[in-house]
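User: I'm new to structure prediction. If I give you an amino acid sequence, what do you actually give back? Let's try with this one:
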Amino acid sequence: MRHKLKTASGKALYGLRKCVVEPVFGIIKVSIGFRGFSFRGLKKVE
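Assistant: Good question. You get back a string of structure tokens that encode the predicted 3D arrangement of the chain. For your 46 residues, that looks like this:
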């Protein structure tokens, strides 16, 4: 792993792990203040 991280391709691949995976959910939680549904099940939520 140490050797892999020293190569340019290894650094590029490992750098991809730093990306934000779920920005949409973060925006919903922070901006809108939405934390969850009051109902259980997809039919009730709709």
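You can read the tokens as a compact description of the fold. Here is one thing that stands out. The chain has a mean pLDDT of 81.
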